[in-house]
Amino acid sequence: MLSKIPVDIKNVSDGDIDKEILRAAIVAELDAVNLYEQMANLTKNENIKAVLMDVAKEEKTHIGEFQALLLQFDPQHKEELETGAKDAEEISSK
């Protein structure tokens, strides 16, 4: 993502702006997790690896914070997550 909101905010309604901000924040955090974990896997330096993995873990916490807020603002998102979790459980138990 590299520090650019992936949605044209001017075209988002006032009722949806907070949801779009939260989604963009989640995308940014996921991007950061991927970047830090990839860099950690590339380095041979154990100290650098440990710090990168610790920072990646913190980003996962941020994802959880933004996700919790998004679930408050978007009931449909919450319903679809629950449906997806049930679907995944059914598939994995086969």
C-alpha Rg (nearest Å):
17 Å
Mean pLDDT: 91
Strand content: under 5%
- What order do the helices and strands follow? HHH
Total number of distinct structural domains: 1
Number of beta-strand segments: 0
The helix content is: over 70%
Q: Major beta sheet, specifics? A: none
Low-confidence stretches: none
The number of distinct helices, counting runs of at least 4 residues, comes to: 3
The end-to-end distance, rounded to whole angstroms, is 37 Å
**Class from helix and strand fractions:** mainly alpha
Shape: flat
Protein name: Ferritin-like di-iron-carboxylate protein
GO molecular function: metal ion binding; oxidoreductase activity
InterPro entries: Encapsulin_nc, Ferritin-like_SF, Rr_diiron-bd_dom
Keywords: Encapsulin nanocompartment
Task: Write a compact overview of the structure shown.
The chain has one domain (about 15-90).
Question: Helix and strand layout, with pairings?
Answer:
Layout: H1 17-42, H2 46-73, H3 75-92
How would you characterize the overall build of this protein?
It is found in: Encapsulin nanocompartment. Keywords: Encapsulin nanocompartment. The protein has 94 residues and is mainly α. The chain has one domain (16-92). The chain has helices at residues 17-42, 46-73, 75-92. α1 (17-42) packs antiparallel against α2 (46-73) and α2 packs across α3. The radius of gyration is 17 Å and the shape is flat.
Question: What are the key terms here?
Answer:
single chain; mainly alpha; 77% helix; 0% strand
